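Components:
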Amino acid sequence: MDDPLLLKNQVCFPVYSLSREITNKYRPILDELGLTYPQYLVLMALWENEPQCVNEIGCKLHLDSGTLTPLLKRLEAKGLLARRRKSCDERVVEINLTDVGRKLKTEAAEVPQKVMKAMNVTAEELMELKEVVLKILDKQSCNS
Amino acid sequence: MDDPLLLKNQVCFPVYSLSREITNKYRPILDELGLTYPQYLVLMALWENEPQCVNEIGCKLHLDSGTLTPLLKRLEAKGLLARRRKSCDERVVEINLTDVGRKLKTEAAEVPQKVMKAMNVTAEELMELKEVVLKILDKQSCNS
DNA sequence: CCATGTTATATTGTGCGCAATTTAATATCA
DNA sequence: TGATATTAAATTGCGCACAATATAACATGG
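Structure:
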C-alpha cells in the first residue's frame, strides 16, 4: 500500500500530468495566435527584452539550441522574428522581433486570463502552486 | 511589473520547467535500467495490475494510442512485455509483462529514493508539492 | 443478414526536448 | 603567428505528445 513504486504514491507523476494538462489548456487558446506553448514562452522572453541571442533565451527557458534553433526558424518562417549573426561575433545569433511579432503581444494580452478560466482555478490556488513549485525548482538549478 | 505576460509572473512556466527538470533527474537513474521516464510510468502501471489493455494504461497515465503504441512496441522489443490481441475481442490489445519485465521491479525499487536524493528535497516538501498539484489536477479532469 | 455506427488500436505528421556530434568563429598561449 | 582550446549554433537521431486519420473488429437496428 505504501510501496514507493505504486503510481498513487508518486509525486513526480502528478507534476508531469499537470504540465501536460496545462499545455492542453493553452493549445486551443494559442491556436488562435498560431502559436505553440514553447513558442509562446520564447515570445514572452522577447517581448520583455530585445534583441536576445539564442543562448540568453535558452538560459531563461532552460532550453538548448537543439530545441531552440528549429523553433526559432519556425517563428521566423511565420514572420514573427528575424535571426541574424552579430557582426562583432559571428558565432552569436541575435533574435529581433518583427513589427508583427511585437504587435502579437497585444493579441496575447488576454491569454493568461483565458487559460486561468479554462483551468478553473482561483488566483489563490495558482499562487499557492507557484510558491511550492518555485521553492522546489530553486533547489534544482545549482546541481542540474 | 505586474504585466501578466512577464515570464516571472507565469505560474504554468515553473510547472513546465519543474516537470522537465524532474525527468532530467530521472534520466541517469533510469538509464541504468534502460528505460525512459514515460516507459517507467507504463511499467509501474503494469507492475500494479496485469494484464492491462492499451486503453487502461492510457487512462491511468492520460496518454493516447499515438504515444502508447510505439512506446509499448519499444518495451516489447526490449523483451519486457508482450502485446497480444484478445481472442474474445480482436480490437483490444492486451499487455502482459514478461518474466524479465516483472523482475525489473526489483531493480527499480531504489529508483524513488535515488530521485528524491538527486532532487535534494525533503519528504515534507514533496508531500506539500503533491497536495497542491493534485488539488489543481483534479479540477482539470472533468473538462479536459 | 446487411448497412450503419461505434470502438480500439495503429498510423501519419508536426513539434518539442535532449544527448551527442559537428561546424565555424573566437580566444589563448607557446 | 600558428596550434590548441573554447564557445555558440546547428545538426542528427531518438523518444515522446498529440491531432487527425485510417483500419479493422464489433454492435445494433431495420
